[in-house]
User: Fold this.
Amino acid sequence: MERHLLTAAELDAFVKEKPEWSVAGDALERTYRFADFVHAFAFMSAVAMHCERLNHHPEWSNVYGVVKIRLTTHDRGGVTSLDTTLALLMEELASG
Assistant:
């Protein structure tokens, strides 16, 4: 999958479409809140399968029902199309 660095306009468009996400420095960030740890962990497990397939892994943390996500492509020095692809997959998994 191509990994082009997103322009400021592309980042703005993404955040307008998905306002739960924010740009923080060289990354996209979002906090998900689930009913409990089991639901949070199930979400993370489902996301992990896609991360392996894409060979792209988030920086994330989990405390009880809260999962904090940070997406950036380190070898490109910022947010790429790979990060937004993963973010959209996370949105689908969280809503399903």
In short: Strands lie at 22-24, 27-33, 59-63, 66-71.
